[in-house]
From TrEMBL:
Protein name as catalogued: Protein translocase subunit SecY
Known role: The central subunit of the protein translocation channel SecYEG. Consists of two halves formed by TMs 1-5 and 6-10. These two domains form a lateral gate at the front which open onto the bilayer between TMs 2 and 7, and are clamped together by SecE at the back. The channel is closed by both a pore ring composed of hydrophobic SecY resides and a short helix (helix 2A) on the extracellular side of the membrane which forms a plug. The plug probably moves laterally to allow the channel to open. The ring and the pore may move independently.
Organism this protein belongs to: Alicyclobacillus ferrooxydans
Keyword Glycoprotein: no
Major place of residence: membrane
Topology within the bilayer: Multi-pass membrane protein
Entry's Gene Ontology cellular component terms: plasma membrane
GO terms classed as biological process: intracellular protein transmembrane transport; protein targeting; protein transport by the Sec complex
TM annotation in the entry: 18-36, 64-92, 113-133, 145-165, 172-189, 209-232, 266-286, 306-324, 365-385, 391-410
Keyword terms: Cell membrane, Membrane, Protein transport, Translocation, Transmembrane, Transmembrane helix, Transport
Key word Lipid metabolism present: no
Family: Belongs to the SecY/SEC61-alpha family.
Residues in the signal sequence: none
């Protein structure tokens, strides 16, 4: 472990990437303390204590929402825009599907489209929040100029976070947007510890032994969940591949055996982030029309951590896992590459049969991977409910994001080290 850390600093290229990532994270955390003018922050904190949506937004913004900083909306508009663009690529808009196949130039066009859509969604979400706060009497001023300042400030902060994420991806370490969400959740760990202390030790000081025992059980449960997530995230299904003997010019290449590594959870934490961001939308829209019957029904049944919310979250996680896995793994392309290089799967004919075999294997392992993600997303909710910690908001989504992003970042640094013949972190 320590040898791996020492190796990181020996590589100037990787060291600069890490320092750049830490610098952007520091700027982001400082920015969460710069408030947008025009909001009564004390009233917002008081009204948000029993508002599940506000608690969720505060978790994913690293506390910036209750401080009503320029980063109060976090990266939710960008995630929503990414979901929309990826769904439209799947045969809905042929032009976007063509861009996807154009290589680097096509990806740049899709990225630009995502940026424009992020700004548009940011303006809509900022305007909706401003309207909601105005109806709840949380604004200090009710002039059109005050509304415009709040909307512009929130949208500018969201756009800046999108740029931060892209810069981390390009010049730093890891997926930038995931790293920002990771840092936001980690920054809330201290506050969560205080809430648990208040719910157990402060509220029941005479039950010291019982409180200590419950704390040990809670910590042990979290450690076990972390271990399970790491185990499944690292698990692979290896499909054996045999290459025939080839003659290229005067050189004879002997046949060799290898394998195709297929991850049990190839989609990573993307389905979890997508599902959470998508479920925020109906509740957010309902808050704008709270006096309507349908809005009251949505707010009654679909608030975060409610039974229906958890059920829909599991369903969406499973659906997005299948969707994103088939984006990441292209069985048709794999079968073509094997046939092109004189490779075949033992017992399976090259071509169409190989493609169907890979699809069958991918679907089987994705069933387990998606069910596991759904199970982990529900488990902390059940544990907190059983421990009478309903006031503490910390779902399995947060645990999955923390472990998933940490593993992805470590694997990226591992690859950089192995390219230069250094020993990495993962044995």
């Amino acid at each position: 472990m320590w040898q791996g850390i020492a190796n990181l600093w020996r590589l100037k290229h990787l060291r600069n990437r890490i320092l750049f990532t830490l610098f952007v994270i520091a700027v982001y955390r400082i920015g969460t303390y710069f408030p947008v003018p025009g909001m009564n922050q004390n009233a917002l904190n008081q009204s948000g204590q029993n508002n599940a949506l506000f608690n969720l937004l505060n978790m994913f913004s690293g506390g910036a929402f209750y401080r009503f900083s320029i980063f109060a909306m976090s990266v939710t508009p960008y995630i929503t825009a990414s979901i929309v663009v990826q769904l439209l690529q799947s045969g809905v808009i042929p032009r976007l599907e063509e861009w996807q196949k154009e290589g680097e130039s096509g990806r740049q066009k899709l990225t630009q489209l995502t940026r424009y859509l992020t700004v548009c969604l940011g303006v809509i979400q900022a305007a909706g929040l401003t309207y909601t706060f105005d109806r709840q009497g949380l604004l200090l001023s009710h002039t059109w100029w005050s509304y415009a300042v709040i909307v512009i400030g929130l949208t500018a902060g969201d756009t800046l976070l999108m740029w931060f994420g892209e810069m981390i991806t390009e010049k730093g370490v890891g997926n930038g947007i995931s790293v920002i969400i990771f840092v936001s959740i980690i920054s809330r760990m201290g506050q969560l510890g205080q809430e648990v202390y208040s719910a157990w030790f402060y509220a029941h000081p005479n039950q010291l032994f019982l409180n200590i025992l419950k704390s040990i059980v809670l910590i042990a449960g979290i450690v076990i969940i972390f271990a399970l997530i790491v185990f499944v995230q690292q698990a692979e299904r290896k499909i054996p591949v045999q290459y025939a003997k080839r003659v290229v010019g005067r050189t004879v290449y002997a046949g060799q055996q290898t394998h195709i590594p297929l991850k049990v959870n190839a989609a990573g934490v993307i389905p979890v982030i997508f599902a959470t961001s998508l479920l925020i939308l109906p509740y957010t829209i309902a808050t704008y029309f709270s006096n309507r019957a349908w809005a009251e029904a949505v707010m009654r049944y679909l608030y975060p951590n409610s039974v229906w919310y958890v059920v829909l979250e599991v369903v969406l996680i499973i659906a997005f896992t299948f969707f994103y896995t088939h984006i990441q793994i292209n069985p048709e392309q794999l079968a073509e590459q094997l046939q092109k290089h004189a490779g075949y799967i033992p017992g399976v004919r090259p071509g169409k049969d190989t493609e169907e075999y890979i699809i069958k294997v991918v679907n089987r392992i994705t069933v387990f991977g998606s069910l596991f993600l759904g199970f982990i997303s529900v488990l902390p909710f059940l544990l907190l409910s059983g421990a009478n910690l309903n006031s503490v908001y910390f779902g399995g989504t947060s645990l999955l994001i923390i472990v998933g992003v940490a593993l992805q970042t470590m694997q990226q640094m591992e690859g950089q080290l192995l390219q230069r013949h250094y020993r990495g972190f993962i044995r």
